Amino acid sequence: MNLNQLVKSVEDEVIELRRHFHQHPEVSGEEFETSKKIQEMLQQAGIPFKTGFATTGVLGIIQGEKPGGTVALRADIDALPIQEENDHDYQSKYADKMHACGHDAHTAMLYGVGKVLNQLRSELAGTVLLVFQPAEENAPVGGSQQMMDEGVFQEFKPDVIYGQHVWPDLPSGEVGVLPNEMMGASDRFKITIQGSGGHASMPHQTNDAIIIAGNLITQLQTIVSRNTDPLDSAVVTIGRIDGGYRYNVVADKVTLEGTVRTFKKEVKEMVKKRFSSIVEGIEKSFAANIKIDYLDGYPATINTPKWAEQVIETTQKILGESSTPAVSPSLGGEDFSRFLQQYPGAFYWLGTSVSDTSRQYPLHDPRFKLNEEALNKGVELMAQLAVDTLKKLEKEELETHESY
Ligand code: NI
To answer: Tens of pLDDT along 305-319?
Structure first.
């Protein structure tokens, strides 16, 4: 069987496996049954694997019968602490846990890719690594760095690494990829304002934390509107505010929580610097006490132009010339960024919008759904991408030798 036929032969199994994971979601750091199931499936498929990276991470290893380069393919395996609100017949069986980011599909597709490529071993020149990564949703820690720290690539070092993510904004059969910035850097902060409380009728005896918070919120917004180059991107969002007791009491304490999103390193550094000087300025001018907890999150996901180009080439070969529409980068954070800091590669979006609804619910929504028709395409694309990339690496290797 050729690659295309092999992909067809695993289609039902991939959908079934995705539904199994969907019904049994496990959140970051608790992917024990998910990990066990992955190992079971790899074993059945005759794919050697290693375990124990970031506790529940699994590395499948497919060695081609000819020597060559190494291509790593990554799927994240964790779910979110969300109560599912869909009514399909493979709903999450666990309360407050849901695969609302499609990692169930990523995991099932990577298994399918492994099963296909394992049957093409006699033709493969090089090694394909199947990286099943836990804790992607656990920003800013994540599972990718821990997997690398614990030696996931010690034996086989990737020449190229790819990751795919289901994408509800694109239809099935389309793929989004960009040559450089793909996803944003995602930082998280908490600000604690300590003033002093008292009676609402005697404000002069207090230091009103709500007034301080109001000023702080307004000033923080000037980082984007006044300090950021209009041609660059930055977001400062305060998503949560908490403080006060009742209508006639001046609040002594307010906490604010939020996130900063950027693409460029220098923009991120500028935002961070302005962030702390604004807080310090407000602290001084109101004679309050303000504490900042700033957590540096996932870095920006920056593709290697050459391998992003490979994604386009392979996608168009399989899905047609109009299958790679122009897309804008997203300021969502992604743990794959850390793999891309160490190895060349690309992250791309696999179109999975649902056709039988007028409204697409976004990733992380309790009503998020994906189009299972796209899974087969995702399997074929990733498998073909591995084959094409190994061929390219082989060709480059030959060319370097010829030039001596
Ligand atoms: Ni995700």
So the answer is: 999 999 999 999 999
Tokens at residue 174, please? 């389309």
The 8 Å CB, 24+ separation contacts for 47-54 are 47/114, 47/115, 47/118, 47/130, 49/130, 52/150, 53/146, 53/147, 53/150, 53/151, 53/152, 54/133, 54/134, 54/135, 54/143, 54/146, 54/147, 54/150
Q: Which two tokens stand for residue 376?
A: 């087969």
Together in a domain, 390 and 313: yes
Verify that 94 and 24 share a domain, yes or no: yes
> How far does the centroid of ligand 1 lie from the alpha carbon of residue 169, in Å?
14
Domain tally, the chain:
2
Catalytic residues: 78, 136
220-261 pLDDT, tens digit per residue, is 999 999 999 999 999 999 999 999 999 999 999 999 999 999
Q: 159: CA distance to ligand 1 center in Å?
A: 24
Q: What is the 3-state secondary structure (H, E, C) of 9-62?
A: HHHHHHHHHHHHHHHCCCECCCCHHHHHHHHHHHHHHCCCEEEEECCCEEEEEE
65, two tokens: 């019968």
Same domain, 79 and 160: yes
**Domain around 235:** 185-297
Instruction: Give residue 15 CA to ligand 1 midpoint distance, Å.
Output: 18
* Closest to 193 measured CA to CA, from 254, 105, 117: 254
C-alpha of residue 78 to centroid of ligand 1, in Å:
9
What pTM was estimated for this model as a whole? Answer: 0.89
Residue 404: pLDDT over 60: no
